[in-house]
Amino acid sequence: MRNTRGSRIPLVDQDLDLARGRGAVLKILVLGLGLGLGLIYTTLAIAAEPVYMGAKFCRTCHSSADNDRYHKWLESRHAQAFDALSGAEMTNTRCLSCHTTGHDQPIFEKSMRKDLRGVQCEACHGPGSDYKSMKVMKNPGLARKNGLWEVSRDVCLKCHK
């Protein structure tokens, strides 16, 4: 890449782990623009891997008087799935893949693994970081475009074999 004077503009490709060791990678391009005496660097985020948030983030919008999906879920067997495990099963990856949400997947930096115990919203609807905003969720097509999974037989069969 060259600037208007014909000299090269540095382009640096870097990976940053924004999930603090949890596996989410954001691809960053650092572009140096030659202006007079020095360079000005700007960053451009290219793509981030979606991360699991936890049902506590879904609760904000899905616990209203006319649409209380959150509290209905709390009373369900799915919400209690982790509690159904016994001693050694609570650390067995094979068990945790179905009895927790997003096991071995990147999670939101403000969430903890214990926040994802049980079969939560994102176990069936996919990691919520890209579709969680009110603007996106009010538009079903946009929500699907941003990663919201349609609940289907195939989604259920991931655990219910």
Give a brief outline of the structure.
23% of the residues lie in helices and 17% in strands. It has 161 residues and is of the alpha+beta class.
Question: How would you describe this protein?
Answer:
- With 161 residues, this protein is of the alpha+beta class.
- The protein has two domains: 11-48; 55-156, Flavocytochrome C3, Chain A, domain 2.
- Helix content is 23%, strand content 17%.
- The chain contains seven helices and three strands; from the N terminus they run E-E-E-H-H-H-H-H-H-H.
- It has a three-stranded antiparallel β-sheet, with no helix packed on it.
- A hairpin with a 2-residue loop joins strand 2 (26-35) and strand 3 (38-48).
